[in-house]
Design brief:
With 152 residues, the chain is an all-alpha fold. The chain is built from five helices and two strands. Strand 1 and strand 2 form a beta hairpin.
Amino acid sequence: MNNLRIITPRYHSTFDYLIAALLCGGPWFFGYADVGTALWLSVISGVALIVYSTVTTYERAEKLLGIQTHLLIDIVLGALLLLSPWMFGYAAEVWLPLVLLGLALIAAALLTEPKIRMVTPKTARSAVREKTTKPESTPWGKVEGKKSQEQE
């Protein structure tokens, strides 16, 4: 399952705000603003997604909600959206947009890498140092044109 985790937390955050916008504007964009329960469920879900995305630690900055908890909430919200047309009895009027958005939330949660790579100034410096220093020797011998400290 870990091999399928192809979405980074950074891209997941962008996806969350896109889904939230579709949930908030969906009733008018997809034409179900006259279905009261679907309208309110969609808008409230979109606002909730914005709120818990805002307080989620996607990368670096520590916030209130960890990425693992966020992904779990995404799955629960996605399942609610997926099942809501039948749970709340408006499936005859509208179901496809909410089912697709619910599936998108669940898929994104299952495909997102739940581990955050924390970058500190020390690890960033060492990573830069490793990339900029050239080895004085290789497995095939010394690098030509370089003097070791012992030769100087």
